[in-house]
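So, can you check this one?
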Amino acid sequence: MTGHRTLSSLAVGEEALVCEIEADVETRWRLLDLGLVPGTRIRVIRRSPLGDPVLYVFRGTAMALRQADAQTVRVRDVGEA
């Protein structure tokens, strides 16, 4: 998976595309049900003062994710083939 990184590694204002979710089954299904599916474009809006959780926007919805959950989401750069 060259070039892939986790959602938690994105900086504020950065966008990426979701590749896969490597969480436990329950968390994976919860994120998929919320619309965080492969191919989804996601952007970091802001971090809380202590850095956790982080506010993301995707599919017209803003959602805060804990770092532990964001570390399970593999992403790639928007321009990457």
